[in-house]
Specification:
Elements: H1 17-26, H2 36-55, H3 60-84, H4 93-96, H5 107-112
Helix pairs in contact: 2-3
Length: about 140
């Protein structure tokens, strides 16, 4: 089955944060190692793949595999941002070592994580409800 997905985004303020982001993504000369399509898809994969697999009924072990991969990609991007923009001094030990303490994981999630891959099927919590700003409001301008 072929999946056809289209997305169109416009902003009135080309110098607002969304406008600057969209202009950057669309100008492949500014990021020759990846097309704007690849950059958008990689971002979507990193943030939402584990939730998509969960929503379509894949087992917990499979969802964890994708969650682990997504978390690794996001951690690598955090390291890249800190390195690229000279923020190494601000990089926390937790992120630098890629280890999470139980204090950084909500209790509901801790309770659902099995001790091993052989553990019984787990009930993963629903994805967090994200409050995204209205693109027209563009709070960063």
């Amino acid at each position: 089955m072929t999946v056809n997905y289209s997305f169109r985004c416009q902003t009135r303020n080309e110098d607002g944060s969304i406008g600057i982001l969209l202009r950057y993504l669309l100008d492949d000369d500014l990021h020759p190692s990846a097309t704007h399509r690849d950059m958008v898809l990689q971002t979507l994969r990193s943030f939402w793949t584990p939730f998509a697999y969960q929503a379509f009924g894949y087992d917990a072990i499979e969802c964890q595999k994708y969650a682990r991969s997504a978390a690794n990609q996001l951690q690598q991007h955090i390291l890249y941002l800190h390195s690229y923009f000279g923020l190494e001094a601000e990089l926390s030990t937790r992120v630098a070592t890629s280890s999470l303490t139980s204090a950084a994981i909500p209790v509901a999630v801790q309770a659902s994580v099995p001790e091993s891959a052989e553990a019984a099927e787990i009930n993963l919590p629903p994805p967090l409800a994200l409050v995204l700003p209205d693109l027209e409001d563009d709070p960063f301008t």
